[in-house]
Amino acid sequence: MTRSIGLVLETMPTSSSWTKIFIAERLSLFVKVLALPQRVVFHHFSPLLRASRPSLLHAFLIVTALFSKEVDRSVEEAVVDRLFAIMQDTAMEASFRLLAVSWLIALSCSKLSTFDLLWARVQELCPRWHDPLELKEMKLQALLYCFKISQTMPTNLLVVLESLSEFKYCFRPVGAHAVVFRFLLRILIDFSSDVDGLEVPLTLCDLLRSHPRLLPSVLALYEQANSRAVQYKLLHSLGDFVSRLEPPSRIQKYFGLLVILSETPWLDPSYVLTALKRLVFCPSSSLSWQAGMRVLITCRRVILSHPQAAIYQPMFRLLQHLSTYQSDVDLRDRALLYLRLLTHAGPAELGALFNPNPGDVQRMTQTLPPVLPKTVRLINGPVPFLRLVKLPEERQRLGLLDRQCAVFVLPHGRGPLGSEKELQGGGLERPLGTSSSSTAASPGGVNSFGESEWEKRWGDPGADHQFPKEWLELADAADRELGIGGRFSWLLGEYRRHVQASPASIRLPFVLKYQQVQDMQSMGGLDCPRQLFSLELTFSSSEHYVPIEPIRIPFISADGGPAGSRLDEEAAAGGFPCMNKLLLLLRPSSPVPTSFGVNIAFNDSQSHMYFGQLEAFDVAFQDLFLPVRMPLVFWAPLFESLWQGSLEKSCWSVKVLDLERDIVHQLIRTQLGPFIVPSEVHLEEEDFDFEQEEYFERWNADGESGLPLEEDDDDDVVVKVDTFFIIVFVPPCHHLLMRFAISSRSTIVRILTDRFQLLSYMDAFFLSWSRDAAVMADRLTESEAGQSRGVKEDCLH
Fold first, then answer.
1. How far apart are CA 597 and CA 615, in angstroms?
2. CA 163 from centre of chain
3. What SUPFAM superfamilies does the annotation carry (predicted)?
4. Which terminal residue of the chain has fewer beta carbons within 10 Å of its beta carbon, N or C?
5. Are 537 and 553 in contact (CB under 8 A)?
6. Based on C-alpha coordinates, what's the Rg of the chain?
7. pLDDT digits (tens, 9 = 90+) for 521-564
8. What's the predicted TM-score (pTM) here?
């Protein structure tokens, strides 16, 4: 067998790398059984010391470990140098660098001379910033091993943790956080006598001062320490730290530490009592209900864990202050109860009150069954017996017939655009941009600054749609002086600051109503509750909107009260309690149309809890349109200023509408009526070639009438062009300007905005105009056909 082993070793130079590794792993058994000397085996593997592959070096080290006590000093130095080179090579894989550190520890354990070589280069074991996390932890273990063997501990050992400073911002016990606290725990266990010299308690206090969320890990170190002396040193330092913390309001972040300090009977309770006194008596900190309850829980732990004579005076003052001056009645009552127990009961009675017999508690849980309401989750689509629908009628009151539903406060001097009948008829008799009934700035007006009709109708003052009252006085002065003068530049700056300081919201009116369920299968065999209590509507989030506040509704019912009562009459008319009108406020952070999902939770008359969803709703592009928050007299100067270059990052676009003049007039009135600039705008005239269109119009008219067509007709063509200016405020702080040039057969729209993304919605916006124009044309054709049939019938008679 010895000759066979020798034959195998003789073939080593011609063997592959994996064969050499295989031989090294299996050789230890034969060396021990056959008692092979070093001179027979070692020289066959010595060339592997300089191998470029770490796996071959690993094979050499396996053989070296078999003859560790017989290896020469020069070989030891070469091995240590090679392992340090691999450990510091950043191009090497992390697993081989970890293996190098493990071999350094293993070889130094078997021979003292190897440890001397390792100790001479111990500073190279310090972790570096660019080292992988696993290598950093292995280096820390090697450092602790070296210090433990040498029985020499440097006072600045914790400086090595600077390469792991990211642990301060990772509050979960993973990654660098776990590595650092495992290192500190090894120090507390293996070097308990050097804890003060290493300043471990001071370091932990500094960590907690700047990073309170590390408190659970610090308390875990205290619990895992196996020495009562170490635990005392830690709690003594932490107690002194929390009792001196500035400002006192920050003590609320360390209630976990206060509970541990209060439950330790062999620790001085003055640390906890001092911290609680500074927190409660601090004039700048007001205790919330949660913080007050934590204070009282800590007081209870102190009373149970410490002699009454040692805590009576400070605890009496603390509880008396809480029971007298605390604003929350629950905290006052609880503090008064603890105060009476402290002054009238002894320690044994307090223990019996605060810590009841576990057997009694167990019997209570067995003999008193819990009564819990049933929870029902409606998962088959929207809740079948509730509907959340928009109210487009409210927008029609503003004169807008664009099939959207957002509403807003009209500016001063502009009221509703007419009755419903007049709106449906088009209202072309009235001048474009005016209203059928304008209101002055009176207390009952639409935009008065007192109790307005808007607030009476919705219970919402609409303050974010209004402008300061001083601007209205400036507008009145401008009307009297028949001019604005240089005050507009000041007003423009104030307007921009006002828009930034008071972001506007869009308001969507809804109605939430109860409806009878015809198909009971949608309820999954459950009965429909007819009375709903404590309804809460929550809405999905969007990155383009500020989160919507939940809406809470006390009561909705399928029917009213007793027959003949007022509630029964209102329910029969479709009102409360079958229906609730809602005004939903949305504050855009960027003007993007989106959709929102609606979740609902409510109770029925049997206290069962229901969870479900309602129909999702959309926020359209037109819903983002709001009037400019400025008196009407300043709309024209504002349009001129923005159009002529005061708009930041302006973007232009042009749209051509092949529609007749009357149809465009009617569309502007019904789609953009509240946004028309009511006074004259002074801008340069645009040079559009509408004359050719008028020539073709005359040519077609003459051809249809049978008159001779004259090509050399030099008569001047009168071109009539109507110009209208539209200014729209788009929240949060953008503007959309449109200039309409309307001829008999076509319209050119110039568009200006300070947000280029808005231009992408204009094609769809004007496409809806084309559809509306087609509907109007069909109605006009039907009306003319009806009139012609009536004329023929009159002629026949």
1. 7
2. 32
3. ARM repeat
4. C
5. yes
6. 43
7. 656 567 788 899 989 999 998 889 999 999 999 889 887 655 44
8. 0.51
Backbone angles phi and psi of 736, in degrees to 5: -130, 115
The distance from CA 205 to its chain's CA centroid, rounded to whole angstroms, is 32
Give pairs for 765-771: CB < 8 Å, separation 24+. Answer: 765/621, 765/622, 766/655, 766/657, 768/402, 769/657, 769/659, 769/667, 769/671, 770/657, 770/659
Q: What is the pLDDT of residues 420-451, one digit of tens each?
A: 333 333 333 333 333 332 333 333 333 333 34
With vertex at residue 460, the alpha carbon angle to CA 733 and CA 616, rounded to the nearest 5 degrees, is: 70
Q: How many helices (H) and strands (E) does the chain have?
A: 30, 12
Sequence-ordered list of residues with C-beta below 8 angstroms from that of 491, at least 6 positions apart, any chain: 471, 474, 630, 634
In the 8-state DSSP scheme, what is residue 676?
Answer: B
Closest of 620, 735, 732 to residue 677, by C-alpha:
735
Amino acid letter at 23?
I
Bridging pattern class, strands 375-377 and 609-619: parallel
In this structure, the number of other CB atoms found within 10 A of the CB of residue 366 comes to 8
**Six-digit token string for 714:** 């030099």
Give me the DSSP letters along 32-84. HHHT--HHHHHHHHGGGGG-SSHHHHHHHHHHHHHTGGG--HHHHHHHHHHHH
Q: Which of 344, 349, 346, 251 is nearest to 308 (CA)?
A: 346
Residue type, 338: Y
Q: Can you give the residue ranges of every domain in the chain? A: 155-244, 261-356
Give the residue carrying structure tokens 């789609």. Answer: 671
Measured in residues, the chain has a length of: 797
Could you tell me which residues come within 8 angstroms of residue 27 by beta carbon, excluding any fewer than 6 positions away? 5, 41, 62, 63, 66
In 3D space, the residue among 127, 125, 161 whose CA is nearest the CA of residue 145 turns out to be 125
Highest mean pLDDT among 161-175, 472-486, 614-628, 641-655: 614-628
Segment 692-704, tens digit of pLDDT: 666 556 655 555 5
Mean predicted lDDT score pLDDT of the chain: 79
DSSP 8-state assignment for residue 573 = T
The pLDDT assigned to 442 comes to: 31
DSSP codes of every residue in 449-489: SSS-HHHHHHS---GGG---HHHHHHHHHHHHHT--TTHHH
- How far is it, in rounded angstroms, from Cα 86 to Cα 99? 9
Under a CB-based contact definition with an 8 Å cutoff, are residues 628 and 635 in contact? Answer: yes
Strand partners, 581: 511
CA 673 to chain centre: 37
Q: Which two tokens stand for residue 778?
A: 């069909």
On the CB side of 227, CA atoms within 13 Å amount to 15
Report H helices in 244-307.
255-263, 270-280, 289-305
Angle formed by the axes of helices 38-45 and 17-34, nearest 10°? 170
Note the pLDDT tens digit of each residue in 387-396. 999 988 888 8
